[in-house]
Amino acid sequence: MPPPRKIIHVDMDAFYASVEQRDDPSLRGKPVVVAWRGARSVVCAASYEARKFGVRSAMPAVRAERLCPQAIFVPPDFGRYKAVSRQVREIFARHTELIEPLSLDEAYLDVTSTHTQLPSATATAEAIRAAIREETQLTASAGVAPNKFLAKIASDWRKPDGIFVIRPHQVEAFLAPLPVGRLPGVGKVMEAKLTELGIATVGDLRQRGAMELEQRFGRWGRRLHELSLGIDDHAVQPDRPTLQVSAEDTFEHDLPLDEIAPHIRRLAEKAWAAHEREASGEHARVARTVVLKLKTSDFQTLTRSFTPSSRPDSASDVAEIACALRDRVEKPAETRYRLVGVGLAGFVEVDSFAAQSDLFANIGFS
């Protein structure tokens, strides 16, 4: 039998905002919002001082300004954030090669076996956090657990600048009182469905048994039961390429297709913000395809996509293409929709894309 996995999830604290406060001492202790001002901009990050007012990432910037009128808006500088992220990644690599970045500011590490041979995963996490503080003057929180989903929950447990450890014998007791919404994949809609069944906590979910959950929710029901027991066999995957970034929303009331445009534009901003993080990552990649996702009131899921000759280069481009994709939805006009999503796919390496663009330009196709 292989040894039990030891997984660390490291999450930099309010990363973009913390970099801005580090580099500009006049911002320290003040509510900083990393975003462009404007009706169609979204928040990339908020300092903990701004979060006290309810400001969160991916929130429309105009709402953030209403919640915190005294907020200091700083335009994002992804090149600078990328450089700091590279520093942090180098610290990770001193301990293990099994690193799975999720974004510029968080990653999973498999430290079952390490280069440094520290006595425990907890000691490794502490060493990493200490090095980050010393070398970048920033703080990070860490979760240590036997698998990825537990480590991610744990890293959020004592934020900011904290560490939380879930040992194998503590898993079931730790999970039991948590709201089911803490499980990965359980969004607001699924949480509401579970609540209707009298399932509010992970412990409630566990008591229902795998068979009942599978009968109600199919294969996802069996997966829910596994998660309620703390079972997650997904390995840390170094440098896993992003296939798609997206944002979606379920409406309070079902809407006709011609009333969805404002929601598409708002979600395009969120999807574009996620794309910009991918485009500024260590292995920068850009998307070429826009995807529109719809779910009808009777739970039919529709997707439409388009790859323009010139890749989208703004949230406005994404929104215009996604809105146009509604014309390819062949449903009666009276059809109502309960969910809309906007995504970007078809990722290619930035260098590769630039080389292709130059080639087409040189032969007269651009």
Briefly summarize what is shown.
The chain has 366 residues and is α+β, with helices and mostly antiparallel strands. It has helices at residues 15-23, 48-51, 61-67, 78-93, 121-136, 148-155, 171-175, 188-196, 202-208, 210-217, 219-228, 261-279, 315-324, 350-362; strands at 7-12, 32-34, 45-46, 72-74, 99-103, 106-110, 140-145, 163-165, 244-256, 285-286, 289-296, 301-306, 336-345, 348-349.
Query: Which word captures the global form?
Result: globular
| Rg value | 22 Å
Residues in helix, %: 25-40%
CATH class of the domain at 244-356: Alpha Beta
Looking at CATH, the homologous superfamily of the domain at 244-356 is DNA polymerase, Y-family, little finger domain
Number of discrete helical segments: 14
What does the main sheet amount to? 5 strands, mixed
| Strand proportion | 15-25%
Query: Which stretches of 5+ consecutive residues score pLDDT under 50?
Result: 352-366
Q: Which series of helices and strands comes N to C?
A: EHEEHHEHEEHEHEHHHHHEHEEEHEEH
Count of beta strands:
14
Which structural class should the secondary elements be placed in?
Answer: alpha+beta
Compute the separation of the termini in Å.
57 Å
Strand order of the largest sheet: 5-6-1-7-8
Oligomer: single chain
SSE blueprint and pairings:
Blueprint: E1 7-12, H1 15-23, E2 32-34, E3 45-46, H2 48-51, H3 61-67, E4 72-74, H4 78-93, E5 99-103, E6 106-110, H5 121-136, E7 140-145, H6 148-155, E8 163-165, H7 171-175, H8 188-196, H9 202-208, H10 210-217, H11 219-228, E9 244-256, H12 261-279, E10 285-286, E11 289-296, E12 301-306, H13 315-324, E13 336-345, E14 348-349, H14 350-362
Parallel strand pairs: 2-4, 7-8
Antiparallel strand pairs: 1-6, 1-7, 2-3, 5-6, 9-13, 10-14, 11-12, 11-13
